[in-house]
Amino acid sequence: MEKEEWIVVKGSCSIRPMKGAVKINCMSLRSQIHIPNGMVGLIEALEPSELEVSINEHSFLEKRKEAVPKEWFSAMDEIKDAEKIMVIGALDSGKSTFILFSSNYLIENNVRVAIVDADVGQSDIGPPTLISVGIPSSQVLFLSDIPPLSSYFVGDTSPRGNLLPMVVGTKKMVDKAFEHGAKIVLINTTGMVFGGPALALKLFKLEAVSPDIVVGIGEEVKRLIDLFSSTTRVIHLPKPRGMLIKNRLQRISRRKTLFSKAFKKLNHTTVDIRDVKLIGDLQIVEALSNPSIFKAFVDIKKIEYLLVGLHNRRLELLDIGLLLGVDPDNYQLKLLANTNVVDQTRIIKLGRLRVMPDGTELGRVNPQSVFSINKASLPQP
Ligand SMILES: Nc1ncnc2c1ncn2[C@@H]1O[C@H](COP(=O)(O)OP(=O)(O)O)[C@@H](O)[C@H]1O
Ligand SMILES: [Mg+2]
User: Fold this and answer.
1) For residue 271, what are the CA distances in angstroms to 76, 274, 342?
2) What is the pLDDT of residues 1-42, one digit of tens each?
3) Whose CA is nearest to atom 4 of ligand 1?
4) What is the pLDDT confidence band of residue 290, given thresholds at 50, 70 and 90?
5) CB-CB neighbours of 9 under 10 Å
6) Which residue of 91, 244, 250 sits with most ligand 1 atoms within 8 Å of its CB, as the best mutation to test the pocket?
7) CB neighbours (10 Å) of residue 283?
8) Residue ranges around ligand 1 (CB below 6 Å)
């Protein structure tokens, strides 16, 4: 590679630096690395360099003059002096890539950086449906290499219908980042940028978090950025050219992998309904907490595998689990959950999404459909 030349690679492949100095995803590349299937690496030569790359039939490799727009680097320099930076953009605009680059750049400059990942659909840190915060201890190749420090339960892969948890969760995770000594917090957001609810979400998030800088990527958010510019410092950036984006099925498949990983540690367990508070749709809460209603009216198949968040008395998320059913005669909620956290669980938040233990999404629960007259349990004439 010539100096300042780029190579874009898509996994799976292995890369070993042989000569010179290169960065991959803004991380200094010193030893051999592996890029998993479907993941993208943006390699920049800092001086004339040689790499050994092993590819297979799924890999993609292309030389580019410039993989990341120059403006991105000036923006990364500008955010060095801020505390809270919120990144907005439509789906596949490069939000995660910009945050990954910024995080690695700030770490190189000895800044303790935190990332709040509020993109509940395409999460990089922690499983989907949660807002998670992570503090990388060193540069990372991918944001998914950063372990979550703490998470907030939203219970859905879309902010639609969940605007309050989205705002509260983002604010709480930003606070958590500073409690853990972060100097700069980078906040990723969902790709929901069109329409009234999207505007409301961004406006109130902005008010709750009060970032010093909002970075908007792509033409889709130009108007939003203009709107915010009266109250906040804004930076508008172009998208990189030739992005290797995932299609809908690849996104669902990625979520399935992340969910199944998160569910690996879950086991069959029960919780006494009288020992916990349920928070969620009022009709479903009523159905689950009242044994006689449950027996007569509830079609358990409609809420089976509902995503739930297990919380302690301080409303801190302990882990996620799946609702399996109710044993109404014994006041038991049947769950798939991490048995280590069940004893501390005092509050269970009900999500909206149903997900099978292998990560397959079953769609959103419809509270109306949960009720059907279960004739067998009605008093016989
Ligand atoms: N410069 C680039 N060249 C090729 N692919 C890129 C480039 N920048 C990002 N990508 C890929 O495009 C996809 C979308 O980018 P991403 O940062 O995940 O967007 P967002 O977080 O806004 O959805 C990802 O798969 C990413 O790896
Ligand atoms: Mg993203």
Assistant:
1) 48, 9, 7
2) 999 999 999 989 999 999 999 999 999 999 999 999 999 999
3) 243
4) confident
5) 22
6) 244
7) 14
8) 8, 40, 42, 67-68, 89, 91-97, 122, 191, 240, 242-246
